[in-house]
């Protein structure tokens, strides 16, 4: 016999409780984002490679080493999406919606990054995310963050996460800050990792996000953006903080939050937990006012976040196991037809019911007991409703069945 086929490294199947956790996160996110007025969009899971390479930044981890990029049979370079924002912005332009603003977008689906698989880090993982396109006011940033906060709250994990916020400033602030960073890191260039030496030339801010230990020691004493903010950027940041307070969202200011992708400005934030080891960021995002323009569209400001469903799934309590549909059991072959009628009638009025594919009444009852069904309907001369939780049994009229099964 051939050896059994294996899943690709870094991918996983969602079965049983894993599937239930995933579904619970997704349902919660859909419900909460709808409360905030977001609409769900679906974009393709692969795009022209340029959608990502032009926007995420040529020195970002994702572009330099994590993308699943390949040539298709027609010779075009395509990439499995590593994140959702670039695709949503591309879709905004494609659909001609850049003048129809604001657009409040929710999305969910698989993302792909070639990373070293470990707990909470996979090569195919899943994200939920929102993008608020159009308004360039701190109210938009605060609303997006509040929606994320409410999702974590409704998932029951708000107590184990902390919101860290920071500002990356506007262009003027960034230019001032960049000069200060270049001066500082150039002085310590010999202690920088090879990668960060390149970043020093191309994008010094990226060094702040380095995972290299030597770099991190230097970063601890690097200049802070807050000393280089323009007045407009400082006002924006103050507006964000007061609106978060108005929405009742608790936060901590953390000047070390810089996002890993190039397109961010002003607001950057992360919800972090200590419960997942090194994979502590569960939901993260920020403002990206230049992105749509970078993709060939007009200037459309935007702010959003994404969260890993796998990391959220690990933090939540096991979702309630749902009862299996009621088991319809003919007492013998003679009642098979009546059982099918009852099965169909119940399903027609929205009551979950199923029938075993084979076996005698005793076998079927045993199976129903094991399956986690709450009720069995025994179909013979009379109809009996058996409560599988306590074993009690009563004669019922067919017309009373729906009410009893719904109870
Ligand atoms: P990290 O620093 O952990 O690599 P990141 O900055 O690359 O995270 P983002 O690009 O901001 O992550 O993605 C948003 C969220 O998606 C993360 O906070 C995390 O929950 C999730 N995520 C990112 N990469 C992975 C992965 N490889 N496997 C599982 N979840 C992931
Ligand atoms: Mg990463």
UniProtKB/TrEMBL annotation:
Major location (coarse): cytoplasm
Regions that span the bilayer: none
Catalytic activity annotation: tRNA(His) + L-histidine + ATP = L-histidyl-tRNA(His) + AMP + diphosphate + H(+)
Gene Ontology terms, MF aspect: ligase activity
Oligomer and partners: Homodimer.
Protein family (similarity comment): Belongs to the class-II aminoacyl-tRNA synthetase family.
Name this protein carries in UniProt: Histidine--tRNA ligase
């Amino acid at each position: 016999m051939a050896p059994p086929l294996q899943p690709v490294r870094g991918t996983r199947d969602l079965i049983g409780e894993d599937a239930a956790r995933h579904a619970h996160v997704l349902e919660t996110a859909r419900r909460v984002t709808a409360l905030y007025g977001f609409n769900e969009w679906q974009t393709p899971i692969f795009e022209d490679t340029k959608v990502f390479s032009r926007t995420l930044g040529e020195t970002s981890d994702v572009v330099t080493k994590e993308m699943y990029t390949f040539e298709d049979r027609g010779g075009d370079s395509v990439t499995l999406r590593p994140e959702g924002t670039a695709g949503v912005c591309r879709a905004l332009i494609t659909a001609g919606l850049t003048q129809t603003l604001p657009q409040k977008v929710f999305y969910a689906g698989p993302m792909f990054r070639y990373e070293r698989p470990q707990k909470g880090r996979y090569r195919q993982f899943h994200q939920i995310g929102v993008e608020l396109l159009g308004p360039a006011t701190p109210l938009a940033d605060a609303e997006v963050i509040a929606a994320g906060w409410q999702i974590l709250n409704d998932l029951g994990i708000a107590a184990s996460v902390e919101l860290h916020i920071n500002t990356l400033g506007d262009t003027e602030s960034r230019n001032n800050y960049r000069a200060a960073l270049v001066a500082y890191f150039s002085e310590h260039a010999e202690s920088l990792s090879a990668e960060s030496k390149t970043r020093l030339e191309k994008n010094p801010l990226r060094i702040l996000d380095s995972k290299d230990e030597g770099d991190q020691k230097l970063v601890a004493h690097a200049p802070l953006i807050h000393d280089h903010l323009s007045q407009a950027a400082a006002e924006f940041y103050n507006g964000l903080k007061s609106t978060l307070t108005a929405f009742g969202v608790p936060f901590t200011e953390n000047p070390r939050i810089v996002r890993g992708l190039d397109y961010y400005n002003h607001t950057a934030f992360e919800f972090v937990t200590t419960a997942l080891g090194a994979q502590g960021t569960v939901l993260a995002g920020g403002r990206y006012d230049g992105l749509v323009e970078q993709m060939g569209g007009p200037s459309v400001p935007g702010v959003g976040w994404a969260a890993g469903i796998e990391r959220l799934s690990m933090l939540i309590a096991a979702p309630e196991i749902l009862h299996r549909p009621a088991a319809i059991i003919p007492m013998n072959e003679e009642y098979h037809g009546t059982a099918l009628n009852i099965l169909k009638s119940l399903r027609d009025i929205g009551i979950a019911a199923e029938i075993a594919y084979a076996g005698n009444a005793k076998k079927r009852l045993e199976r129903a007991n094991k399956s986690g069904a709450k009720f069995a309907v025994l179909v013979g001369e009379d109809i009996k409703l058996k409560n599988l939780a306590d074993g009690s049994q009563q004669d019922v009229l067919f017309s009373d069945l729906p009410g009893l099964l719904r109870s």
